[in-house]
Write a structure and sequence with these properties.
2 domains
């Protein structure tokens, strides 16, 4: 990983995975002309790889929110059919509340709020990163 951080993995497999198929990416060339490719033929310039990774992360976060919300709803459904006052009902509702809290935290802290969309939440960060990549090196 340290060699990858230094950019010293030319013509070797990298620590990165292909955002399209999940395969191992290989690095071809160094510096700003580096290119990454996988065994199935997907190829990326560094800025394109970064953009695809950003979108992949955002989709994964939305998938986590969806899964947590589904668990919360299912837990509440189970609680609805238990006997009122039953300890199990209380535990199910507490677990549902916890899932909702986790989902809300991801939305607020990582996705920029409930109304965020994939393009909007990743776009600002991506633009900042691309500006930094294009910035001339400090001498």
């Amino acid at each position: 990983m340290q060699a990858q951080e230094r950019g010293a993995r030319r013509d070797e497999s990298t620590v990165y995975s292909c955002p399209d198929c999940g395969g191992v990416l290989w690095q071809f060339d160094d510096g700003p002309d580096a290119e990454f490719g996988c065994h199935t033929g997907h190829r990326y310039q560094p800025d394109t790889l970064l953009a695809r990774q950003s979108v992949t992360v955002t989709y994964a976060l939305y998938a986590a929110v969806r899964a947590l919300r589904e668990q919360s709803i299912l837990l509440r459904q189970f609680a609805a059919v238990t006997t009122p006052g039953d300890r199990l009902k209380t535990e199910l509702l507490a677990a549902a509340d916890q899932k909702d809290t986790y989902a809300q935290s991801i939305r607020n802290d990582l996705l920029g709020g409930e109304e965020a969309h994939v393009e909007e939440s990743s776009d600002a960060a991506l633009q900042s990163i691309l500006r930094e990549l294009r910035r001339p090196p400090d001498d």
